[in-house]
Every structure is written in structure tokens, then in C-alpha cells.
Amino acid sequence: MRALLDVIVMLLQLYVYLLIAAAVLSWLVAFNVVNTRNPVVAMVGDFLYRITEPVLRPIRNAMPNLGKSYLLLHLSQRVLTGTMARPWTLVSGGLGVVVRLTPRGGRDAIDGIEQRGDGQCVLKARVRAAAHEGEANAALISLLAHAAGVPPRDVSLVSGATARIKRLAIAGHGPTLAAALEKVARLS
Predict the structure, then answer these.
(1) Contacts of 139 by beta carbon, 8 Å cutoff, 6+ apart
(2) What angle do CA 176, 180, 185 make, to 5 degrees?
(3) I need a labelling partner for 88 at 20 to 30 A (CA). Which of 7, 52, 71, 168 fits?
(4) Other beta carbons within 10 Å of 111
(5) Residue 110 β-bridge partners
(6) Among the listed ranges 15-19, 79-83, 93-97, 124-128, which one has the minimum average pLDDT value?
(7) Domains of the chain
């Protein structure tokens, strides 16, 4: 009897793995990562559909029809990226910030938070100063100091002096600095 229960548990675990594989494949197809015209992908997709559909059909029938609404996708993206990913991290003695700077941007401003294609989260900033002999970096330091409510001497450029993506350190109480940057980023 114990052997029969072990086999049933093993089959259920295998089925759970197939459900996970079907979910992953459906996301890959939805975001055009895999091409369903490929015979191998089509065969795997068809197999997973035929195996998982008897269990998923009653669940789909019980759920309300959302149609082509992308609201859930948008909300899940906001939950996964918008609220969790921030371009700053608490470090000893303050806050570390990753910034994408646009020199000669017409005005000195923080333009919000951006999730780059490589997954990196950056604080978008623009300054009027040109990228010449550190003028744009000095303007960025002044802008971040004003946004965080600290004197410019408490903001230092850690890396990226000649690059568009820069890492800066802001000295002070980390959570207070993060709250100030959060407020500024939300307003932009």
C-alpha cells in the first residue's frame, strides 16, 4: 500500500512540474520569446496543453472572463517592478543611487524612475550644464542634494564620471534620504 501511495505522490509532483512548464511556456509565447511556428516548440506546447487542459478548464470556467484586458498584466508589472525595484540602496552611512544623466537637457530636473532594457533600475535626471570638464556632474550633485535635502558636500560621485549611467553616494540617514527621493520621483 505504501508503494502505491509513493507512486501517486510522485505522479502528482510530476503533474505540478508540467503545470509550471505550461505556465512558463505560455508567458514565453505571450512575450514572443519563443516562436510557436517552430515544430519542436509547437509539439511541446501542444503536449503541455493536452496534459494540463483537463485540470485547468474547470478553473477557467469558474473565473470571470477578462477578455483582452491587460489590466492584470499591467498591475503585476507594477507590483513586480514599480514598487520593489528602486534605483537606490541603503548603504552604511547613507544611500547609494544609480542615475541616468542627460546633460544639456534644457532644465535641471529629476524625471522619475526608469527600468532599463537590461533590468537595471535608474533615476532619470537632466541638467542644463554640458558634459564638459565635470560641469554636468557638478550640476547633478547639486540637483540630488537639493532633492534629498542635504548639502552638496554630502553627495559624492562614486563611478561613471564620463558615462551616462552614474553611481552616487548620499551621506546621511538612509531611510530618510530614500523617502525624500521617493517623493521627488513620484512627483515627476
Answers:
(1) 108, 127, 128, 129
(2) 145
(3) 71
(4) 15
(5) 125
(6) 79-83
(7) 2-65 (no CATH), 86-187 (3.30.1200.10)
Minimal CA–CA distance to 91: which of 181, 150, 170?
A: 170
Q: 185 CB contacts (<8 Å, ≥6 apart)?
A: 110, 112, 113, 123
SS (H, E, C) 112-142: EEEECCCCCEEEEEECCCCCCCCHHHHHHHH
Residues whose CB falls within 8 Å of the CB of residue 150, separated by 6 or more in sequence, listed in order: 170, 171, 172, 177
pTM above 0.90, yes or no: no
Cell of 47: 503536449
Q: Which of 51-55, 123-127, 148-152 is least confident?
A: 51-55
Higher-pLDDT residue of 63, 45:
45
Report which residue type is found at 5: L
